[in-house]
């Protein structure tokens, strides 16, 4: 049985509002407005020619020819490939992180993020930017590859409402 | 305002709708294979052996030789248990199955490549050249994907696992890309622990037999449980050390994929060339993230302070506060709601209802952090 003090209640209400406010103002970019119908999906597969590192094929799919420039597409995929290479890079800093983690019995990851996770956040931000600036205006949507286990980059093609016919 | 709550169907997390044969605990944070009996046996064996050692031998050895012995033993024991739990509970690197759109797209591409004919098409493979070596990528009929190189489908867990090593029943999980280093640390530390215990039990017997004779010393000391396990575990550690230094998996070694006996030009395309880099890459390289996310830990922290489903009696009294909280968590999580009492409730209520717990504490909320 607990009897709260008034101070306790006040502090809790303040903390409650502080924690709730930033989350209430979350932006849902593509979910808020009405979504056009999905016309088709294109899947960019992995490129295994350099081994098991995460790399996607830069070949421009024919279904996007009418919507997107080849150069923009290649730039997006190349940047993603570079970011993944940065995440998986074997070097002094990653070894140090591994050794530190081993010595602390991996409890250090309760306080800090791994390098890979940091880069994944960067990738998520980059994909969001690309969607907002380039892909959404053309009726396309890039899905973050991590949602598909880093197997494919899924590009959803929406019906082009301006022309009024499904492609 | 009860309608918004009732109309909303709670979105399921990915691990709840996971198609493989895995068991999940702690809201998806712990992932194990279906058959876990042997894992509990491993745990019991280790605990019993160490328990017997600490109870019977440590006092004697601490007195006769040095008290550092039990300390080292304890450290080794904790490390073994830690790495065992980490190996058993972590995601080995499971690949998600293809979405229906993806599977249809792949089928279409394969039909175009083969030329759709009446009879059954041959097994689907794709060839890729990695570092000058031709590698065949097989199509997985269960997961409907072309398996990445070094991935394999585990029939026990019914998943494709990246860099599949083997399915270890002792650990109750597959050993793959994400937990191979923990597995290696486990068997290495276990071999040190068993050699340590074995050596000191023998020492104890010898020291004892000087006083009271060998046979009666053997009777006093518990039978050396770890005698046979020493050789098998040390052997396994040695084998895996060889695998790590040549950057191979158990799967590849057993099949002889990169053995020079197959053909003269056969070599391992994944090896970095020197042993040191191979070891560092396997043990200290970056840890890939898991695809199956679990809820952020800040939800858990709120459990300690007041993580609750709305109780109908309570809701009527503080609807506005509850509604704000509801919108906070409605993106991809269960309807975990926090009920902070805005007026003092001088009692502690606990009610369990499937996954929801109603706890009303009157303590301050703890620090929120995210895992």
From TrEMBL, chain A:
The keyword Lipoprotein applies. It is found in: Golgi apparatus membrane. Residues 1-29 form the signal peptide. This is Golgin subfamily A member 7. Keywords: Golgi apparatus, Lipoprotein, Membrane, Palmitate, Signal. Belongs to the ERF4 family. One of its GO terms (biological process) is protein targeting to membrane. It comes from Oryzias sinensis.
TrEMBL record, chain B:
The chain crosses the membrane at residues 38-62, 68-85, 182-207, 222-245. It catalyses: L-cysteinyl-[protein] + hexadecanoyl-CoA = S-hexadecanoyl-L-cysteinyl-[protein] + CoA. It is a multi-pass membrane protein. The keyword Transcription does not apply. One of its GO terms (molecular function) is protein-cysteine S-palmitoyltransferase activity. It holds the Pfam family DHHC. Its EC number is 2.3.1.225. Keywords: Acyltransferase, Membrane, Transferase, Transmembrane, Transmembrane helix. GO terms for cellular component: endoplasmic reticulum; Golgi apparatus; membrane. This is Palmitoyltransferase. PANTHER family: PALMITOYLTRANSFERASE ZDHHC14, ZINC FINGER DHHC DOMAIN CONTAINING PROTEIN. PROSITE patterns: DHHC. The keyword Acyltransferase applies. The DHHC domain is required for palmitoyltransferase activity. GO terms for biological process: protein targeting to membrane. Residues 136-255 form the Palmitoyltransferase DHHC domain. It comes from Oryzias sinensis.
């Amino acid at each position: 049985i607990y009897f709260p003090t008034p101070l306790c209640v006040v502090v809790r209400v303040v903390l409650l509002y502080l924690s709730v406010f930033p989350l209430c103002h979350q932006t849902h970019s593509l979910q808020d407005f009405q979504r056009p119908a999905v016309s088709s999906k294109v899947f960019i597969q992995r490129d295994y020619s350099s081994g098991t590192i995460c790399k996607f094929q830069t070949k421009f799919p024919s279904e996007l020819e009418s919507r997107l420039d080849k150069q923009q597409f290649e730039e997006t995929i190349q940047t993603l490939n570079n970011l993944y290479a940065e995440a998986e890079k074997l070097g002094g800093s990653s070894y140090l992180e591994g050794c530190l983690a081993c010595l602390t019995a991996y409890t250090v990851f309760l306080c800090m993020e791994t390098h890979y996770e940091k880069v994944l956040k960067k990738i998520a931000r980059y994909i969001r930017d690309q969607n907002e600036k380039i892909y959404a205006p053309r009726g396309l949507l890039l899905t973050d590859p991590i949602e598909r286990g880093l197997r494919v980059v899924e590009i959803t093609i929406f019906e082009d409402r301006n022309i009024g016919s499904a492609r | 305002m009860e309608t918004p709550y009732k109309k909303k169907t709670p979105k399921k997390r990915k691990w709840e709708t996971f198609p493989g044969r895995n068991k999940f605990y702690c809201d998806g944070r712990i992932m194990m294979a279906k058959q876990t009996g042997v894992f509990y046996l491993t745990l019991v064996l280790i605990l019993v052996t160490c328990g017997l050692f600490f109870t019977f031998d440590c006092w004697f050895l601490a007195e006769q030789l040095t008290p550092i012995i039990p300390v080292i033993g304890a450290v080794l024991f904790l490390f073994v248990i830690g790495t065992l739990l980490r190996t058993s509970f972590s995601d080995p690197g499971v690949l998600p199955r293809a979405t229906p759109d993806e599977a249809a797209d792949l089928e279409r591409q394969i039909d175009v490549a083969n030329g759709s004919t009446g009879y059954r098409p041959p097994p689907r493979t794709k060839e890729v050249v990695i570092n000058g070596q031709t590698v065949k990528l097989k199509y997985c009929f269960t997961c409907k994907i072309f398996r990445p190189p070094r991935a394999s489908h585990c029939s026990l867990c019914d998943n494709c696992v990246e860099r599949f090593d083997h399915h270890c029943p002792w650990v109750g999980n597959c050993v793959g890309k994400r937990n191979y280093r923990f597995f290696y640390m486990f068997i290495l530390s276990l071999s040190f622990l068993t050699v340590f215990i074995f050596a000191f039990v023998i020492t104890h017997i010898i020291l004892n037999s000087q006083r009271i004779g060998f046979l009666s010393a053997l009777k006093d000391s518990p039978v050396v449980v770890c005698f046979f396990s020493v050789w098998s575990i040390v052997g396994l550690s040695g084998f895996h050390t060889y695998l790590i230094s040549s950057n191979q998996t158990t799967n590849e070694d057993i099949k002889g994929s990169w053995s020079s006996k197959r053909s003269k030009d056969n070599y391992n395309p994944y090896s970095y060339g020197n042993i040191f880099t191979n070891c560092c890459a396997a043990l200290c390289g970056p840890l890939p993230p898991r695809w199956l996310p679990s809820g952020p830990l800040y939800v858990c922290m709120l459990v300690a302070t007041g993580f609750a489903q709305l109780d109908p009696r309570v809701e009527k009294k503080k609807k506005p506060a509850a509604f704000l909280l509801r919108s906070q968590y409605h993106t991809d999580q269960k309807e975990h709601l926090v009920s902070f009492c805005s007026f003092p409730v001088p009692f502690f209520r606990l009610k369990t209802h499937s996954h929801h717990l109603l706890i009303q504490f009157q303590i301050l909320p703890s620090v929120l952090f995210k895992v």
